[in-house]
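Ticket 4471: requesting a sanity check on a complex prediction with adenosine-5'-diphosphate. Repro inputs:
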Amino acid sequence: MKITLLGPPGAGKGTVAKALMAYDGSVQISTGDILRAAVAAGTELGKQVEARMAAGDLVTDELIMSIMEQRLQEEDCQQGYLLDGFPRTLPQAQALKALLQKLGEKLDCALELDIPRDVIIDRLTTRRTCTNCGEIYNVKSKPPRVEGICDVCGSEVVQRDDETEEAIEHRLEVYNEQTAPLIDFYRDEDLLVSVPTSEMEAVMEAIKSRL
Ligand code: ADP
Ligand code: ZN
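Returned structure tokens:
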């Protein structure tokens, strides 16, 4: 399966991607995780994107496309992939379409998690993330076994810089302005599958009936 996951920050794209990955062996490719790893490692790329990410602004389409053009041609992508957080703008969606055409591939569907705004805000303010492996926790519904320590890898679990209330409001605005138009784009491409939940049973059912 080659799927892109659409939906506002906090919709559950990462969680859904991990579950789908376990189901069919596709790899999850999260541009957010790739960029956060670069920031944590202090690479040249990381230095370039750090300030924009902390403010909740998107990094440039050129930068994202140069990362993804390489990433999508790696060996592990042959089995299929779940794109999490990409494409994020219309130019990225168009560039992805052109890239896949060039590679003789295409997306199977764009899965939209259509989650209400109040649910999103509540989820994001209570979300915590492992600084090392990206595992996602929630202080209310899924705390780590030991406070502040990742169950999976033992590294520190923190609230992301861009998950303060103010940054979240801004990210939702950025989503509405720059990413929400992709829903129409993929509807026109006849690839859109919308589910009103990130609950796995409903998501799997929608995908299976589509594929
Ligand atoms: P979210 O939880 O908002 O889905 P991500 O982890 O996907 O967050 O992304 C975090 C940040 O990384 C974004 O706010 C943005 O600065 C940057 N980013 C990730 N993916 C992209 C992309 N495809 N285009 C531009 N910027 C991106
Ligand atoms: Zn971890």
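Notes from triage: The pocket of zinc ion (ligand 2) is lined by residues 130, 132-133, 135, 150, 152-153, 155 (CB under 6 Å). Leaving this open until the requester confirms.
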